[in-house]
Every structure is written in C-alpha cells, then in structure tokens.
Fold:
Amino acid sequence: MKKPIISLTSDFGVQTQGVGIMEAVALQINPEAKVIHLMHGLPDFNLHCAARTMEAVTYMPIGFHVCVVDPGVGTKRKPIIIETGRGDFLIGPDNGVLIPATRFLGGIKKAVEITNEKYMRKPVSPVFHGRDIFTPAAAYLSKGIKINGFGKEISPKNLARAPYEEAKAEGNKINAKVISINKFGSIHLNITHAEWDKFNIKLNSFVALNLGNKSLNLPHSATFGDVANGEPLIFKDDYGKMEIALNMGNFSKKYSVSIGDECTIRKVAR
Amino acid sequence: MKKPIISLTSDFGVQTQGVGIMEAVALQINPEAKVIHLMHGLPDFNLHCAARTMEAVTYMPIGFHVCVVDPGVGTKRKPIIIETGRGDFLIGPDNGVLIPATRFLGGIKKAVEITNEKYMRKPVSPVFHGRDIFTPAAAYLSKGIKINGFGKEISPKNLARAPYEEAKAEGNKINAKVISINKFGSIHLNITHAEWDKFNIKLNSFVALNLGNKSLNLPHSATFGDVANGEPLIFKDDYGKMEIALNMGNFSKKYSVSIGDECTIRKVAR
Amino acid sequence: MKKPIISLTSDFGVQTQGVGIMEAVALQINPEAKVIHLMHGLPDFNLHCAARTMEAVTYMPIGFHVCVVDPGVGTKRKPIIIETGRGDFLIGPDNGVLIPATRFLGGIKKAVEITNEKYMRKPVSPVFHGRDIFTPAAAYLSKGIKINGFGKEISPKNLARAPYEEAKAEGNKINAKVISINKFGSIHLNITHAEWDKFNIKLNSFVALNLGNKSLNLPHSATFGDVANGEPLIFKDDYGKMEIALNMGNFSKKYSVSIGDECTIRKVAR
Structure:
C-alpha cells in the first residue's frame, strides 16, 4: 500500500512550532503517513488567499488535506471534513475556505461535522484546533477510519459560503477579484483558464485593466519572456487561474494592490 | 520498531541551507529517522524564545530534540545532552536553553558533555556545531548509542541556568516576563496554567496588566471569540502558558512589547 | 537499497505552495525518495546566492539536487541535468547556477539537455518548470532512469557561464565578490578556504578590507568568540568559503552591503 499523503496549510508563521507540532501529531497517530507542508505563513486570517492555496491540492496526489486559517477560532463555527469527487478529504473550519478547491476536485461528495471526541487530541485546546481536531482527523482518516465515524453529515448547501466565486465573462468585460499575491508581487485573479478561453483573447493581443483608480493596457502573453523587463502581462498561471505580473518586477508594489481588491478587464478595440 | 523522531530548532533563517544540511546530516547517519522541523527563524540568539519553543517538545513524541540557538558559538560553552524523565534526549549548547523544557518533561535524569569525536562530523566547524556536533549526536542517539558514550556526566547543578524561571503568584499579583511573541503579535508569559489556576481568576473576570508605562484591564477568557474584535484578553495558550492577545489584532505592535519585557498582573477589586 | 535523496532549492517564498507542490510531484513519481528542502526564499532571481547555496550540496549525501532560480523562465534557456564527478545529478536551468557547485563535487562528468517529454509533468506550464520539468527529472533519475534518456548531451563548454568565478590571490591582495548574505547579516565571499590558505594570513593577524567607499581593518579569526561583541572578523565559514561578520551584530546592515558587491582584501604591514 502506498503511503498516504497528509498536507498541511496554515497562516502560522513559516517553520514555527505550531507547524512542527501538527506534523508530529499526524505522525504519532499514523507513522506511515507522509506529511507535506503545502503552505504556511498565509496572510493572517485571510480566507481568499487560503482558499486559493487549497485549490492547488489539484496538483497533489489524492490525500488528506488540512487547512488551518480560521478567523472564527473559538467561536461556534464547525470543524468539518469534506470528501471530494476525486477522493480527497479536505479538513478544516466551516468558514468557506475549503469550498473553492472542491470545484477543481470533482465537487463535494459528502460533508461531515467533526464531533466524535474519540478522534481528537485531548485536552482539546479552544485555540488550536489545527493540532487537536483537524490534524488528528486527517491522520485517522489516513489510517482508514470512515468519514461517517467523525460525526453527522451536513448538507453541502448548509456549509459556509466560499470567500469568492469564479468570475464570469459578461460580454466584453470580466469583473474579477485579487485572490492572492505571491512573493514576486504577481497577482492572481478568480478567473479560470476555461473562463478566460471563453473570453477569447488572442495570444499577444491586449486587454484593458481597471484596478482602483489605475488603468493600464497589457498583453495576454504565454509567459514572462514575451514582454520586456518591467512590462506588465496577463497569462495563465500554473494553478488554473489568470495571473498579472511585471516581467522581472513587482506588480503589486508598483500598483499598490491588496488581496481582495476588485478589478475589471475589458477587451480593447483593435 | 517505530521510526525515531529527531526534531530541529534554530535561529537560522527559515528554510535556509543550514536547516536543510542538518536534516541531510541526520539522515546520512540514521536513514530510519524521521526529521521534524519544530521551529526555525527564531529571533537571533534569543534564549527566551528558544527555550519556550523547546517546551513544546511536550507535545511531540518522545524523541531526540536539537536546539541550535547559541550566542556563545565559538566560545568555551559546552555541547551537552540532557536525558529527561520522560525519556527524551535534548541536545544543544550548555547555555540554559534546554532547561525550561525539562520542567515539562519529567526533569533532568542525566546530563553529559559531548566530547567523543567519534560521534561528530569531521572536520568540526568552529561556527556550525548544529551540523557537526548536535545533529550527529541526535542521530547517533537515535540509532541506539548510549548517552554515556558521548562524554562525561555533568551534575545538573553545574549546567548553565535557564533564561527564565516560572513566575510565581504572590498574593494579589504576579510579576511575569514576555518569553515569546508569535506572528499574530500575541505575547506569551512565563506563567504556567497551573500557577494561573492557583492565582484563581474566574473565567470572564478582569485583571489589571502593567507593562512598561502602559496599563490596561483585560478579561481572563477561554478564547478569542469571547471578546469583541480588537479587544485584549488573557487566556491559557496551547502550550501550557498564559497568553495575552487582541482578538483579530496585533497586541505586541499596539503596545510595543518586546521579548524579555517584564510585566505585572494584578487582581482588580470587583 | 537506501532511499534516494532529492533536494529542492528555489527563490519561491518559504513554505509556499510551489515548494509543497514540487515535493508532492517528486513523491508521486518516486514514493521511495526522501525530499529535503535545501533552501527556499532565495533573493528573487539572484544567481549569485543560488549558486553559492548549491555549493552546499557538498555537505549532503550524493543525490538528485534541483535548483529553481530562473530569471529566464519562459525564454529559450535550456533545462539541463549535470552529472558530477562525485555521482550527484544537478537539475535546473542552463543559466550558470549549477556550475559553482560542480567545482566542489568533482567537476562535470556529463551534461544533458532535458527534451524528452516522457519525463515531464503534462501539460508543461510555461512558467513553472520546477514542477513540470526539473522536479520530475530528479524523481525519474532517482528511480534509475539513465541521464541519456532525457535528451542530447551538451558539451560543458557550451553551458552558460557561472555567475562568479573563484577569487584568486594576486600578491598582497584579493579582489572578491559578495555572493551571499545570511539572516545574521554575515557576508560570504567567493574566496575558498584553500585560496585563503595560499594567501597566508596568520590566525589573529589583521587584513584591510575595502568595500565601496568604506575601509576597515579586521582580524582573521577562528570564530566569533575571538573578537569582542560588535567587532568585525573574517573567518572560514562552514561551507568552504570566507565569511565576514560582526560578533553578535549585523555586518551587512552596518556597512550597507549587497549581494554582488565587490571588495578588496589587502595584507597590512606589521
């Protein structure tokens, strides 16, 4: 049998003790598991960015994927497990953060509220569900415990809503949202490759971008090298969404962009 | 036999080469070991913060735990191994950084100075004992080499002192120290849950905090969600100590708190 | 058979999703491999710093070492594999970043351009060769696929040049370059221990350093503790090069040093 993959994502500081402890807890419950740190250091409590990161699970093996970004820690929001059509189990708080990923993973097959204390680390800290509820759930699932053993099913329509919907092209424009920004200052939009293809912008032709009070024209390129250093471009990113960047520069700094900002992309007359 | 756990903690930059090389050295000596990065990127040379992080070993499986935070690298301070009552081996410099953890791990069973060059990586760099002395010691211990094989025993009373003692309640007040600050700006004090329980502050009742020239009243809450956004609270953290935070805010920034700062907590009349 | 070691180095943000995904891709192809993160978060596109980090492979077991620092992503620069005299395989872009490491690893035994799509992750993203070309190549090599299976051989003399050569002593001086700066603000020069030994500066005697418009005298010490707090020193670093630092201080901040800066070290009259 292959080693099950458990991935961990959080807004904890990178390589801080919470991260190390979650790995230790997972291995204590299932020494056969392989823990991969998908991402840590996410902007504090930022559901947009966390949800977009969880979409990258698409590029991982089918596994047990934990997300601990939880503005509602210590409130009554539920801890949940979502089983996806592809066969993954997504584990985290019921705050919408797990929903966008399910759109890439074959949808929601089943959702369950975690209430069975048998599969929690005790005593359960009121402030660190990542260690005491979410990671143990992933580890027990990876050992073969069935999802229904953790608690009652929840109808998908009763789950908290996603922090963003996928943008839709409307005629000559798309209203979109900045859902993450990487270390290089490139911004990611809630526009899927498929939606962009429907928008039908030829490679190397230009679109007009409005972002706050700034507006600029930029080409739809295949990759950075297609524009000069310091020039902007929009292109298909490596995780199924549209990305805007400066070649060898920092777009978000130059244009003061923040996660959650809205923008509009328009076709330009030729 | 279960795979032995080796944990690594340092003030090296997160995911920098020193960290990766220590993992490689551990696996070269004991390919069966599982290396967990407990924490890296600790504030440079900060013994308070490092010692508090090592306390979190309590939440890990019994194992071989290395700490490389060493203001005295290249001086005559000894490299040591401490065997704990619980059965862990703590490995690092004799600068007090390993002592607070032993209070949570069943005390010091035995301490040894590492002098046997047979278990060092050669040549031994005068500046990177983490790679050449501490990590190899952990890896050889994890393979079953006995602690007495590394060097002569040291009496615990001859070890360097801890960077902090545990605070004690004195009547209506506790003088405490800030021993770490996390990414969210929450501060951790050297007050154990047990000591706080003796102080006997009812849940949701208020205490007065003096910190430098600032003073404020804040409730003893169970968790963030018990106070409004932006409001302060004191609560039991997830590692056995008391924590002060702002719900959805950054306490240390707002009040300019640094590690090592002293504070006083007083009961308030009702 | 021992588990093969795959190491990953990049200028991605530490513990960001690109890093986690590369680990997942490696394990999907070769579940028996052990992935070590040598370094991430390197300065964006900085070939000096990345090349120097790859030199640290010398301190790792023989393995499959990937470097993803690639100012030319999306241009025509080739993806390559270099087999070293020691038996490692270095995988990355043909931009010189892999060359300095080969000087420490027994030279270049063979170099190959990766063109065989059979060993790529598909579809190949034009912007994330780390995930789709380099990491898969490392993983397939680690499973025993021969280097010649990936594409045509390239003559070493046709590879892109290294970002720096090793400095050479010329009479009473050495012209050198700052090739990396660590979290503590210590700077690393392109002067090997062997070259320094030829320069023949006695331990604890002084040299004169010129760096931009600054000049200072500093001793050749064995380690930090040999000088007072806040004082500068030059010493043999832990990776085969010369390092300049302040004991318990930050040299690069104090003297405003950047990677790529040039400097001159001179013998001083006694």
